[in-house]
């Protein structure tokens, strides 16, 4: 599979006021890990415009099913079963085909399968916490998982992360690379979270909140959430015989 | 009333957090049986053209402490300066070279290492040739938006001297932060997120 007709234009400039700033002292880990000097602005060259192809041939059948992809045969992960689905679009509203999505999350109790996570919630032997998929020709994707639990973290004395799923997205160009997090509609912890608060704009936060989508729930199986992701768009390549298209 | 530009906004970034490996390199931290192998661990095979090199180093925070929970990705041209991508319009790249690598830093030492080939030269859009370089992207806990930088090579003095990107760096004392030093077949490239030796990062 390919990633569709390759586009070769440069990407739109990133709106760095919409993204979190590097230095956000209420999120304490950023204090010593944030560059303080101005970034050097760089026009896109082939190294920024291009990116590798990720094909469906690298996926296994269960890669996007976190309920089963780590579970013992005949068993499944514990928790509230959900479907998360949506589209990967670019800033022009066009579906991004062939985008690689990787996702990871805590289990239903709020604990990660990681030796550095020492939260007292139990590990679920049937839950690994990772999955991946590739968008179809229109940019659609879907995954199945259990709703992750909220968990405490050592930032403030009593800081809790809202339930969330991490998303890593690789579209068509290296400059389009993005890691973000998906939150759940109605979660009271969202506005209290220092990591959410690294984002300055309420509308930008809202863009990371998946909406409850009962229409896509599977009867007697899973509830559903809708989560669209937007990657950078491209300026179209200028063709002298098609000036009106630019 | 003004017309809408009809543009969407890019999804805002969030930190990859300390557990980025669960999603992007699960085998590396012992989550086995989900994926056959971690993506991006191997860029070359026996038939890859060009000079074999490795690039390794550590990432330091503003106190000089090594990051042990970071993930790095590189994207680079093959030995002829072509990218293995459908968006490459200048020719066909070496099919035995992916051009893309992903490596975590070691959980104990903080060292990362890519086994790759020395890239060829790639032009800017205006045709001026750039010096051989590797595009690098870093995510970790405490990094709100992935950081982009470049790795240049210490034994490419002539090409580096005429590189249009390096030439744009007004503060010349910062240029060495982008140049990996050669030690036999390995290039050492340390990254400083902050402080006197802060690496030059790019808004691309």
Automatic annotation (TrEMBL), chain A:
E.C. no: 1.13.11.3
Coiled coil: none
Membrane spanning residue stretches: none
Top enzyme class: oxidoreductase
Keyword Amino-acid biosynthesis (UniProt): no
Pfam families (alphabetical): Dioxygenase_C, PCDO_beta_N
Highest rank taxon of the organism: Bacteria
Domain Intradiol ring-cleavage dioxygenases: 84-112
An MF annotation (GO) of this entry: protocatechuate 3,4-dioxygenase activity
Keywords on record: Dioxygenase, Oxidoreductase
Entry annotated with the keyword RNA-binding: no
One GO process term, biological-process aspect: 3,4-dihydroxybenzoate catabolic process
Family, similarity comment: Belongs to the intradiol ring-cleavage dioxygenase family.
Official protein name in the record: Protocatechuate 3,4-dioxygenase subunit beta
Organism whose genome encodes this protein: Hoeflea prorocentri
Taxon lineage: Bacteria, Pseudomonadati, Pseudomonadota, Alphaproteobacteria, Hyphomicrobiales
TrEMBL record, chain B:
Enzyme class: oxidoreductase
EC number: 1.13.11.3
CDD domains: 3_4-PCD_alpha
GO molecular function: ferric iron binding; protocatechuate 3,4-dioxygenase activity
Superkingdom, taxonomy of origin: Bacteria
Pfam families, A to Z: Dioxygenase_C
Intradiol ring-cleavage dioxygenases domain residues: 55-83
Keyword Methyltransferase: no
Gene3D superfamilies from the UniProt entry: Aromatic compound dioxygenase
UniProtKB keywords: Dioxygenase, Oxidoreductase
Similarity field: Belongs to the intradiol ring-cleavage dioxygenase family.
Name of the featured protein: Protocatechuate 3,4-dioxygenase subunit alpha
Species of origin: Hoeflea prorocentri
Organism phylogeny: Bacteria, Pseudomonadati, Pseudomonadota, Alphaproteobacteria, Hyphomicrobiales
Gene: pcaG
